Amino acid sequence: MALKVLRAGVLSTLQDLGRWGSQRIGVPVSGAMDRYSHRLANLLVGNDETEATVEMTLVGPGFTATREVLIAVCGAEFDARVNGQPFPKARPVLVRAGSTLDFGRCRRGCRAYLAVAGGFQVDPVLGSRSTFIRGGFGGWHGRALKRGDLLPVSEPDARLFPSLHRKLSNASVQLAYPSWAATESSEWFAPGPYRIRFMVGRHWEAFAEEARAAFIGNVYRVGTNSDRQGYRLKGPGLHPRDPVEVISAAVTFGTIQIPPDGEPIVLMANRQTTGGYPRLGEVVSADLSLLAQLPPGAEVRFQVVDLATAHAASMARERDFALMREALALRAHI
User: Fold this and answer.
1) Domain carrying residue 203
2) 3-class DSSP string for 247-267
3) Does the pLDDT of residue 244 top 80, yes or no?
4) Can you give the pTM of this predicted structure?
5) Smallest Cα–Cα separation from 131: which of 148, 146, 110, 116?
6) How many folded domains does the chain comprise?
7) Helices 307-331 + 35-44 axis angle, to 10
8) Contact, 89 vs 181, CB < 8 A?
9) With left for phi above 0 and alpha for psi between -120 and 50, is residue 148 left, alpha or beta?
């Protein structure tokens, strides 16, 4: 079985939870920008959370399913349709063989994730199916999807959601989905500015108190030159009190760097492995999915928190996700 790409969209790539363990040889981690939505989409179709999904950005792709397929979409709100019929997010959706899946423009958010039951059958590179376009490897031939691609899909568990199969046995039904929906991350549903929490970084004290207060007290906008490697923020420029000689050191998803022009850069999923700019702070992991959903022009405010608060936020999110995992496992056989 395969999904045939009818339209590629702006940037549609296969991503999983990342290529860990190779940073020491200069290989970026990559992976899904919004890990929460990626993980949830996989759970909804009975996959392991590590399976690859299609990450779509701003304008979505279109597909034809070569056989009956169970799908789920989580994350940003796209104009999603099967054979022209709208279908909801955050639910398992069973569609007929030959159906057309179309994802138009994004109405809210920035990225959505399409999971298919069984997972995409592509070979891992360095332990991951994530696409790293600049390196030309991983995912589907190391590149974004394009028209005519045939994405192979592994055989799913035939026991999943028998009630949906019963609904689809009615010839007049085009697609089947349950009345319930999973709980998505929703911080970005409200209008901005969006609160992004961070812990102070190694070079926080190298900046004058006025610069630190400006970073916390002002609104920054996501720049149009932002991408999967880093978000460039437009707002008050920040400069150290004195020239800072920084030895390149390891960076991670959420590292806030200050380049010579003073405009902060928040490193994202495709971040480099080391960085030589002053590191003002680190975005807490619980807020990375929110940040990943912000399109160019979105406004953010930064709030400094301590390590205990960051840990508590991460643990609370994982507890909620564990409950979701248990609930979905029970519903999958109804």
Assistant:
1) 189-318
2) CCEECCCCEEECCCCCCCEEE
3) no
4) 0.95
5) 146
6) 2
7) 20
8) yes
9) left
